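Reopening this one. Same input as before:
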Amino acid sequence: MADDLRSRNAQTGLTPDELDALSLTADLAGRLALIVGEGRSRAHDLNELLVHVHAIQHAVMAQAAARIYPERFRLLGEEINHA
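Same output, byte for byte:
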């Protein structure tokens, strides 16, 4: 499966599922902003939540790099191909 993804997407970037996942993280960030109150600690509390959203976004976007440079980076759930 990983080889199939690499061949189909080596030059095209993110897969439709990866793009959907990023959209979900953007929606989540917006909803979190609605949940956090308006008090003095809002900015800090929001930052504390959004750092985790950004970590998920980073992991998803790193998939494109793993497809383009499979000898250096690995797809999530896969191993680096040293061949």
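So the earlier flakiness isn't reproducible anymore. For the record, Residues 11 and 83 are 20 Å apart (CA to CA).
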